[in-house]
Amino acid sequence: MTLKPVVNDPQGLAVTQGLHALGYSEVLESRVGKHIQLTLTASDRQSAASRVEEMCRRLLCNGVIEDFHFQVAEAGT
Amino acid sequence: MTLKPVVNDPQGLAVTQGLHALGYSEVLESRVGKHIQLTLTASDRQSAASRVEEMCRRLLCNGVIEDFHFQVAEAGT
Predict the structure, then answer these.
(1) How many domains does one find in chain B?
(2) Is residue B72 part of a domain?
(3) Is B21 exposed, middle or buried (0-12, 13-18, 19+ CB in 10 A)?
(4) Looking at the predicted complex, does its ipTM rise above 0.90?
(5) Residues of chain B neighbouring A47 (CB-CB closer than 8 A)
(6) Residue at A39 is within a domain
(7) Contact across the interface for A41 and B28, Cβ inside 8 Å
């Protein structure tokens, strides 16, 4: 889950300032989002992907201010 | 940034319970971490990777409770 580019990100600003204060002047911008790792059962990757997309739309992602991306991998891989 | 497996994750528990309440009973576990996207200048990928690893160790990641992984990509790709 990442904030949409037009949304202000004070947390990202704090990260950038913190990195600059430590001497990492090469950092131009930081954006802070969420990383959610779901463990779930599904008959195949495609059905897992379609369920996860639905979960993102219905609960995990605030579509007004956030975008989401996800990857499906088999457990243990 | 993800919480180490041994660390309790109440936010992840809330996500799991929320998904179950919506009928996604196939979800076994959720772990909530942070996703930080840094835009920075570097002479090549390798030097970018070594700087980012240093930033993670020094500021971004709390090594006591968190693990980190990162990928380096050229801007626009």
Answers:
(1) 1
(2) no
(3) exposed
(4) no
(5) none
(6) yes
(7) yes
Instruction: Give residue-wise pLDDT tens across range A26-65.
Output: 999 999 999 999 999 999 999 999 999 999 999 999 999 9
What is the model's pLDDT at position B77?
Answer: 55
Mark yes or no for CB contact A33/B33 under 8 Å: no
Distance of CA B32 to the CA centre of its chain: 8
Q: Name every chain B residue with its beta carbon within 8 A of the beta carbon of A34.
A: 32-35
d(CA A47, CA A41): 10
User: In this structure, is residue A73 part of a structural domain?
Assistant: no
Q: Domain of B14: which CATH number?
A: 3.30.1280.10
Q: Which amino acid is at A53?
A: E
State the residue range of the domain holding B63: 2-67
B42–A30 C-beta distance less than 8 A: no
Query: Nearest Cβ partner of B35 from A26, A35, A59?
Result: A35
Contact B7/A at CB under 8 A: no
